[in-house]
Structures
1.
Amino acid sequence: MKHGTQDLALFGGTPAFVEDRRVGRPNQGDRRRFLDRMNQALDNEWLSNMGPLMHEFEDRVAELAGVRHCVSLCNATVALQMLIGDEATGGAPGDEVIVPALTFPATAHAVGWRGLRPVVCDVDPVTGLIDPEQVETLITPRTRAIIGVHVWGQACDVRRLEKIAESNGLRLYFDAAPALGCTHNDTPIGGFGNAEVFSFHATKIVNSFEGGAIVTDDDALAERMRAVRNFGFGPGGRVGHIGTNAKLNEAAAAMGLTSLDALADTMIHNRANYELYRAELAGIPGVRPVEYASQHRNNHHYMMITVDEAAAGLHRDLLLGVLRAERILAQPYFSQGMHQLQPYAEDPGRSLPHAEELCGQLLALPTGPAVGADDIKTISDAIRVAVANGPEVTSLHRARTADVDE
Ligand code: T4K
């Protein structure tokens, strides 16, 4: 239990944990089951190229997402690149795709990588989701598509975005990297727009080491994406598209299946963690858990808070430093808007105020099955002590960095 500034590890106190508590610790599921599946793959002598584990994984993800097709891939970034490069997007170099400011760089990079221009849109100040009203103002004759991002598993305003896309003849894709198991009202994330993309990166709620998927109800799109991931080979083994190699291998599928087996329990655990964090953090000035709309289901994979410097007495980055010294490896997701990334900062004067404010305030705290109630109480205690002494923590830190600079 920490009482004052002197107890904080940043200023010489004993760290709250002897081992790191991390955001993004992989949800591996039952190791024995994983090893059984690996043995199955090794016994089959079938390690990649659309093997049985990959097909089983695809069937289960499609069922969970409520869609006809799951095209599994080596990661979500390539999945987005493949959608942007698809003939139905129809982009020529310099054509535009509207993306939200608040997301992981992969969303904008997928557009830039295909030679199109990401046009960055501001977000809702509370949810951090793409603002459909501003999307409409950004549409030009060169716009080809909109990418909505279900940030932290929150559903975008999918119906409004679908209407905007339809009335302007645009493709609509959703980057659902963090949103497996989430819903919009009662409908699973996965079937909105023309296609959605999941990530199964090691840090996601379901992990396949590295992995991703395009999910869609569009039969023709799914067929094209299956060909593109496999060097363009279509039915009958004929190359009908420019292709790449983006297949999900059997080891990845074995991990994906095993992690998927644990998803329901993981979501229950995450939800309990979220509620406990809310109770523990209640009343700490300037620290607010991001609230998820109750009509949609969230997987609670990300425990997000905002830190308002004026009310908390210290900046998010300093709180992050305090926590890391305690071996609490929080993450500032996301700390840079897409319009601020060097390759896309074409108009340096352009300000997207809602995204910029969130980028300066957001912090992801450790959660997941490896994080229990005692951990959450200890983490919240460290935050409480840092904020209770916010001005002192800030001035001590300033004095120390000034000493180092001299
Ligand atoms: N769209 C969105 C909205 C996304 O959030 C992402 C990925 C994508 C697209 C692209 O998906 P993929 O192409 O990756 O499938 C991590 C992940 O690497 C990235 O996949 C994820 N978003 C992003 C939110 O988080 P970093 O740069 O924060 O990774 P890193 O190495 O700093 O690790 C984060 C934390 O996870 C650390 O506390 C360490 C911990 N960790 C990480 C790994 C790899 C582990 O405990 N074990 C591990 O094996 O990006």
2.
Amino acid sequence: MAEAVINPRIRGFICLTAHPTGCAANVKRQIDIATKGGPGKGIGNALVIGSSAGYGLSSLITLAWGHGAKVLGACFERPGKDAKAGSGGFYNLAEVHRAAKASGKTIETINGDAFAQTGKDAVIAALKARFGKLDCIVYSVATPKRTDPVTGVTYTSTLKPIGPAYNSKTVDLDTEVIKPITIAPAEETDIEATIKVMGGDDWLLWMQALKDADLLAPNCRAVAYSYIGPALTHAIYRAGTIGRAKDHLEATAKTITEKVLKPLGGSAYVSVNKALVTQASSAIPVVPLYISLLYKVMKDKNCHEGTIEQMVRLWKDHLAPGKTPKLDDVGRIRVDDWEMRADVQEATAKLWEQVTSENLMNLSDYPSFKREFRQLFGFEVPGIDYAAAVEVEAALG
Ligand code: NAD
């Protein structure tokens, strides 16, 4: 065991350290919201792949505290060792495990590469030994790299436009200056690699492996997360390399329903979620500036939500047992409905035209973007004494 004073070490959209007590406070807040937002029962066993941060963490908390599920989570996080801090996701789950134990809930975590066969084998062994058949599977992995378990080839995803170069503006997260940005168009290999990493290949492999292991319960529901977003990010997001991967993920939901879940009376869904501050979204050029303006508009209109509010609403309105999910004309659940409201989009687009380095702090909610980014790693959380030394090592037990 080792204690240390932990300070943020931030480079652009990367934070190299994380604070265990701050992460724990974030998780406690989410547990509180999920507990109030659900019936506390109704779902049996759930698996969340990508369970330690962002939408996956909020899904796990919603399932366990909002709907009484026993949850096995899979993630890829770094534990703290000696005086070196672990990752935010690891500390998030340390608190999830502590709180679960304190309230008699069953939550287990497999920490390793979920893309690898060894990761899937470890999850399947744990499910067989201590859980049983799954009623719900959430797929919420976000990462820039994936090694194909069959060929051994490692793919790197890109965030590039397809067709002409993309010209826009973005906020430099180190200098807080708004700058023009030009992103060169993708090659065919960029598109293929991004689909390999962020498309539906791995989700389908998971579902087939779970089926082969006889771990899917009757009426089982699976869900993965997608994004569409506004016209102003269209060329870099939905019509770019990542958008192709999302098209593939959305098509995979249909394949999973047909090949894997239909015979059991179940279905696979894609939920299109709102743009929010997470490690994954902070890495996308242009998106932090868009989020800062969107937050301002949605808070002014009293319709802002965070990941936990989104996930509570997803299960309450669509995925809880007995609910029939409401789908758009191509079969997706839309909890981005408030982000995409015409009045919200019009107001955000207007601010987008006006925003400059000089008015960034007033015209947009950049201060919240900045604070929430730090809070992902447990920093700038109210009530935490950051001058005090804290225990760096934590357990997921
Ligand atoms: P995140 O960065 O907060 O979390 C990613 C999760 O993936 C973490 O739990 C991490 O441990 C896990 N992970 C990464 N590599 C892994 C591996 N090899 N094995 C096991 N686990 C691994 O991401 P997020 O923003 O919550 O994104 C989750 C999903 O939601 C993505 O599909 C994303 O496109 C989608 N989404 C995000 C937003 C947004 O604004 N953040 C909006 C809509 C949809």
